[in-house]
Amino acid sequence: MEQTANKAAAGQGEAKVYQFTGKRPSTKVRKRAMLEALKASFGVIKMACDQVGIERTTHNLWMSKDPKYREAVEELREVKKDFVENKLLKLIESGNPQATIYAAETLLKDRGYVKRTELTGADGGEIEHKITHEVTFKNSKAQGGSQEISG
Q1: Which long-range contacts (C-beta less than 8 Å, at least 24 apart) are formed by 45-52?
Q2: What DSSP element (H or E) covers 139?
Q3: Per-residue model confidence as pLDDT tens for the chain (151 residues)
Q4: Does residue 30 form part of some domain?
Q5: Number of domains comprising the chain
Q6: What is the dihedral of CA 46, 103, 93, 89, to 10 degrees?
Q7: Is residue 25 part of a domain?
Q8: Residue 26, domain member (yes or no)
């Protein structure tokens, strides 16, 4: 499964299109095909649905109604997370500064590695706060119709 994910992520995997001939295959067969397509597409739902020939709403229905199907899809998501985490660690090991900074800012917040943004007013001064209220009253008795009074 990991090799399939690696190939798909690298753009090396071939997109298999499932063509069912004859009568419509059983839901079980289509679910199995969908799981295979999700593996091959590295979890991209739209791509997998297109390969299997089902609507995304069908996939969502299966997710909500079939705990075994949902569990299998969630396991694929975990494989995807592991793949991404592995690639990030390899970049860090190779000395990639952007990957190191990203990992520090997301994983080491409790140690002070947090990106902070300071906001200031013009020329570094204080920020000016201004609150404006507009109130509109309708007076239906004035001149036989409605009249707006603003203040």
Answers
A1: 47/15, 51/15, 51/16, 51/17, 51/18, 52/18
A2: strand 136-139
A3: 334 444 444 444 555 667 676 788 899 999 999 999 999 998 999 999 999 999 999 999 999 999 999 999 999 999 999 999 999 999 999 999 999 999 999 999 889 888 888 888 888 888 888 888 888 887 765 555 555 555 5
A4: yes
A5: 1
A6: -40
A7: yes
A8: yes
Could you write out the DSSP letters of every residue in 91-108? HHHTT-HHHHHHHHHHH-
The answer to whether residue 149 is domain-embedded is no
Cα distance between residue 86 and residue 91, in whole Å: 9
- Helix (H/G/I), strand (E/B), else coil: 6: helix
Q: Is the pTM of this model over 0.70?
A: no
Domain encompassing residue 40: 2-79
Structure-block tokens of residue 42: 């590295």
Name the burial class of residue 32, with classes exposed (0-12), middle (13-18) and buried (19+) by CB atoms within 10 angstroms of its CB: middle
